[in-house]
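tool_log.txt
---
The assistant was asked to compare two proteins side by side. It first ran the structure predictor on the initial sequence, then on the second. Raw inputs and outputs are pasted verbatim so the downstream comparison step can read them without reformatting.
(1)
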Amino acid sequence: MQPLYTNVRVNNEIELCEISDPDCKQLIEKALLQKRISYCLRWPKPPFFGFSRKKNVCIICVNSHVKEEAEAIVRTICDETGYEARFLMRKTQADYL
């Protein structure tokens, strides 16, 4: 007898895009919530030594099953408003500690 959760896939989120404008971030968040797509925000840590040119950069992560729909939403918002988003489309690194 196998446990109920053996076929469930976990830890399958991807880093969808990188955004530096807070207004664009709010628009994308509202659009994802309207389409009922769950997401999480990652704020990269600045380097301990050195200077980082990327300030206020936010990475939006979504589940890999909805990446096409989420990508279409972000592209539509960026095309309509003129904001820039850098698409990453890579698996997230699990740093839990």
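(2)
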Amino acid sequence: MLRPILLASVVMLAMSPPIQAAPPPEELRHKLTQTIRKHRPEAQLEVTKDAFTAKAGTMMYTVHSRSKTGEVYERTHQEEGPNFKGFVLSVAVYPGPYQGAAAIPQTLQGPYFQTFLDATPTDKGDEHYLVHFSYGSRLDADLKRAIMDAIPRTQFSRPVIVPEPGK
């Protein structure tokens, strides 16, 4: 009796559509566009049904995939990434809270470039922004700072230090 129910559940899960991403709101896209155009007017900007992307100074890399435990796989694949002065930015909006496996925010150090990852709740809290910002080691510091200031980021509250009485 349990077997048909289990099979039906598996079939329904397999047939359910994947979680659909959306581009960030117009106000954020405008802010990112203005920020990027100020520093890198030649950057390629694109808004798709899934995300806002911006890139400049990119190239194709042949890389080995890694497991979550750090194991390097033998098989390689092609991946676009920034050159030493370039960047790739992607910002998407997903429904619900972030439920990914990665601890965020964090900066991943790859063999050729770094990637900043973050997932910040939207103002309403019913969705979250997923940010991937890859950059080369010699990306213009002003551009990097401007992008980091413009993207939605996790804000940690500072601990309140209450002095002990009599001190």
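---
observation on (2): The chain has one domain: 18-150. The beta strands are 44-47, 52-66, 72-95, 106-109, 114-121, 127-135.
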